[in-house]
Specification:
Helices cover 72% and strands 4% of the residues. With 331 residues, the chain is mostly helical. It has 2 domains: 56 residues; 267 residues, MetI-like fold (Orthogonal Bundle), CATH 1.10.3720. The strands form 2 sheets. A two-stranded antiparallel sheet has the order 1-2. The chain has a two-stranded antiparallel sheet with strand order 3-4. Helix 7 packs antiparallel against helix 11 and helix 10 runs antiparallel to helix 14. The longest helix has 49 residues. The protein is globular and about 80 Å long.
Amino acid sequence: MSKEVNDPEALQRHGFVVRKERLYGWLITLAALVTILVTVGIVLSLIGRAVTFWSAISPIDFFTGTDWSPIINNAYGVLPLVSGTLLVTIFSAVIALPIGLGAAVYLSEYASDRARSILKPALEILAGVPTVIYGYMALVYITPLFQGLLPISIPLLPAWVPVLPEVTATIPSLRTFNVLSASIVVGIMIIPMVSSISEDALRSVPDSLREGAYGLGSTKFDVSMKIVVPAATSGIVASYVLAISRAIGETMAVTMAMGMSPQMPYFPDVLRNLAESSQTITAAMVQIAGADSLGGVTYEAMFALGLTLFGITLAMNLLAELVRRRFQEEY
């Protein structure tokens, strides 16, 4: 030991290792600081230009207005864009979340190792398809398909209840650009995110919980649905939030499939909104950025929209963090 301590070469090697580890620590810290600074820079740039916009347009008119037509009518009400974004997000989540979770349960609990090694990469290929391809598929294939199937009426209350009148909701024939096709393609796009993250969360559940349930006579389905899924709730919720955030921020697919006609949703005939054209916040930003003349209030509106979108996604991520902390299990 004393010989090694007094060995100049050993001391030199030790000093080199210490300096190398210190350099690695600085590089990792620098990488973390860069990500934080980039985020802060984006937020500050959005806030600065958004404040300029709100100095010309009242924030109350912006957040409560029901007409968005900045180029033609100088109307800057953001509610039609928010409603269009939420429509696509909600209906795409209805498609993607159950399918993605079902695929995750199959891959984690039912599939063999060979099947998992084939199916999981094949499923994740969907995440690598360019979004413009999804928009093209919606416009050329999905919309004509549903135009041949619609209109249809869906009963909302059972017709056999004698004391209640029959209540139905009707989906009329689809327009060329519509919410339904956009929701379908966005839902398909976010399925890999839900399934991949959820499957990782399910597989992280200890086998001892499964074995204990099997020892009590539970079936595989009961173990999957009543033991494994509740134990992985925090990871599943995280996958849901990430997927929904992805849907909120989607641009090209919804622009091609949904169009650029912002309008307030129809009530109470909610399903009618699926057949109509609308516009999301991201599509409106693209429209402003692609205008012939950039500058003035209309150009500054793009930053106000970006800040609004950032606020929506931030609120969702904070909610997801609260849910994660509430249901997170420690094994």
